Amino acid sequence: MKSIFMKKYWLLLGAVFAFSLTGCDSDNNKDPEFNPGENPKTDFAYILNEGNFKANNTSIMLYNKHNNTGTDFYYKRMNGEPLGDTGQDILVYGNKVYISIYGSGRLLITDKKLNKLGEISAGKDRAPREFAAGEGKVFVSFFDGHVGVIDTVTLKLDSKLYEVGRNPEGIAYQNGYVYVVNSGGLDAPNYDNTLSKINLKTGDISTIEVGKNPTSILPIKDNKFIIRRNGDYDENKDKGGLLVYDPKTDKVKAIDDALPGLLAVSGNKAYYITMVYNFEKKKNDLTYNILDLNTLKVKKESFLQDTSMISDVRAIAIDPFDKDIYIADPLGYKSAGKIHVFDKNGKFKKTFSAGISPKKIIFF
Questions:
Q1: What is the enclosing helix (H) or strand (E) of 140?
Q2: Are strands 251-254 and 261-266 parallel, antiparallel or unpaired?
């Protein structure tokens, strides 16, 4: 018996204290030589570790690609304060970094070295989720049913909030519009099934039905988007899937034979990982396929040559410079996770340790 298994972000659990990977610099004040933006190559990465629910142990690791060293809890190291409870998203826009902390209701703005520049206290009830950016502004989804706008100069949240659907999550910007998918996750099994489209010029909001429990929206070629909807997390009910959304027509089309999964776009393809829980094995069965963005067909062949070191998957990211594939393995969410690195041909290169529940990876 199998069931579609996509853990809801707000239920992810685990416990660990401050952790640095083997080979990381110890707490001896010797930072890696870190000059973001001064080199066209991607020498560094930030890894947002979600932490476990209500434990206030969210962290950001600074990882040096070239000497395989890293420093976890780097924000705390730079600012003398913890990030808080249940980190959700991290975004680089311009010369600033934006961080959302769901459980603590915090929106943090830093420079690229994570020196704190400002903070917006959204409140725990507001519950910030994910970011998108455009037109010199940063847009944030709030789990209470709103989208907010952060002014990147004043670092303030605009007083006007856009009212969207229930429990909005994934968000994107394109050509004067903001798009956010509304999961209704807190009302399970009575999920939402909509996409909200915000016209930034007029303030008008339109609603498009996209199927039960949509949680992410990803820009692809031809100004279209892929929407992941998780359905009922159960293949015996609504097993969810992937949709292509065309904002010109406001139409959605299901991608054939595509279960809900994690995606990372690289050129004309998307690396696509699905997780189906196997009750007999008591773990996820994982598949690693390619989604051809020209044909929108799933190629049923693994993009990794060896997956024996992977126990589960929390996130996937592609280094924009060398196209290396980074896969975040949560290792049960109860201890420090791992990041497995593969080259663009899927050959295994290395593994390094991260914090608890590594959720997102961004490169510099």
A1: strand 137-142
A2: unpaired
Helix, strand, coil percentages in the chain from 3-state DSSP, rounded to 5: 5, 45, 50
Tell me the CA end-to-end span of the chain in Å, nearest whole number: 43
* Ranges of each domain in the chain: 125-255
Tokens representing residue 351 in the block: 């593994």
Query: Whole-angstrom Cα distance, residue 33 to residue 27?
Result: 15
Amino acid symbol at 262: L
The residue behind tokens 């934006």 is: 98
Q: Could you tell me the two tokens for 292? A: 């051809």
Residue pair 241/255 in contact by the 8 Å Cβ criterion = yes
Band (3; pLDDT cuts 50, 70, 90): very low
Cα separations (Å) of 142 from 11, 204, 278, 320, 337? 17, 18, 33, 29, 27
Residues forming a β-bridge with 241: 229
Q: What is the CA radius of gyration of the chain?
A: 19
Other CB atoms closer than 10 Å to residue 222's CB: what's the count? 9
CB-based contact 330:357 (threshold 8 Å): yes
Closest CA to 197 of 216, 223, 172, 221: 172
Best CA proximity match to 354, nearest among 76, 72, 16, 34: 72
pLDDT above 70 covers what percent of the chain? 89
Task: For strands 168-174 and 269-278, give the pairing.
Answer: unpaired
The CATH code of the domain at 125-255 is: 2.130.10.10
Per-residue pLDDT at 208 exceeds 50: yes
Please report, as a single letter, which amino acid is at residue 283: K
What three-state secondary structure class fits 83? coil
Residue 8: how many CB atoms within 10 A of its CB? 16
In this prediction the pTM is 0.89
